[in-house]
Amino acid sequence: MAVAERQKPHSDKKLFSLCPFWQSGTTNTSSSSSTKNFNHTRNGNSSNRQVKNSSKSTTVLSVARSLLPAWRRLRFDPAKILYFPYEPGKQVRSAIRMKNTSRSHVAFKFQTTEPKSCFMRPPGGILAPGESLIATVFKFVEHPENNEKVIDQKSNVKFKIMSLKVKGGTEYTPELFDEQIDRVTVERVLRVVFLDVEHPSPALEKLKHQLTEADAAFEDRKKSPPDTGPRVVGEGLVTDGWKERREKYLARQKVEATDT
């Protein structure tokens, strides 16, 4: 009996040594610490993966946005070309219709690569949602070198139309586009094509019809009260540079005619 009693503690000791997780004290503390470290590492790795995935998603979204075309607020007719009758030595006209297709008020502004020989009426303004306007574009056509006839040919002159989303009731000024240049959208870059006035064509007939509309709209705007209709500025604006260039051209023509 004495031998059996002495062996029992030894067998219990063996049993506890085989199952260390049952023991209390240092062993439990160490195991709990290891578990916490493992969970912390796993959570840390998960957070890092989430940050990396978020960064990748942002990068992909930025690239996708850069590849998409800019949101257009205005629709144009004609869409990409300004047709002018080819009449050297004269001031000729073209017309373009603009419509605000967005849900907000939109300011627009014309720019040209030849401000000395071209101007727009109106050069800028604000259109309410769904509102449209037909603008007239003026250009002085010089005689070609060596008396070459330029018909149905592209010109180097280009017109750029820019837009800017504004609040209703905003007063139009050209400085709006300078103050908020980061929000300005280039709506369209229009190229110039000359039409032969001696040979009728669908493009020439459409131009004549649009010019008649533009003239009527201009007269209506002059008669309308200031608070109604599209808010436009610079009606009939002609730059001093254009006037000076035209006067020099006419003086040169007179001298050549006298010499002849």
Break the fold down into its secondary structure elements and pairings.
Layout: H1 2-18, H2 26-67, E1 74-77, E2 81-85, E3 91-100, E4 105-112, E5 118-121, E6 124-127, E7 132-140, E8 154-166, H3 175-179, E9 185-195, H4 202-223, E10 231-233, H5 240-259
Parallel strand pairs: 2-9
Antiparallel strand pairs: 1-3, 3-7, 4-6, 4-8, 5-7, 6-10, 8-9
Verbal overview:
By secondary structure, the protein is an alpha+beta fold. It has a domain at 74-233: Immunoglobulins (Immunoglobulin-like, Sandwich). It contains five helices and ten strands. The strands form two sheets. A six-stranded mixed beta sheet has the order 2-9-8-4-6-10. It has a four-stranded antiparallel beta sheet with strand order 1-3-7-5, with helices on one face. The longest helix has 42 residues, at 26-67. The model is unreliable at 1-8, 11-31, 64-69 and 234-241 (pLDDT under 50). Residues 36-57 have a biased composition (Polar residues). InterPro entries: Ig-like_fold, MSP_dom, PapD-like_sf, VAP.
The CATH superfamily of the domain at 74-233 bears the name: Immunoglobulins
Separation, N- and C-terminal Cα atoms: 150 Å
Fraction of helical residues? 40-55%
**Total helical segments:** 5
Question: Spans with pLDDT under 50 lasting ≥5 residues?
Answer: 1-8, 11-31, 64-69, 234-241
Characterize the biggest β-sheet: 6 strands, mixed
- Strand residue content: 25-35%
List the strand order in the largest sheet: 2-9-8-4-6-10
CATH classification, class level of the domain at 74-233 = Mainly Beta
CATH topology call of the domain at 74-233: Immunoglobulin-like
- What is the element string, with H for helices and E for strands? HHEEEEEEEEHEHEH
Strand element count:
10
Q: What is the CATH architecture descriptor of the domain at 74-233?
A: Sandwich
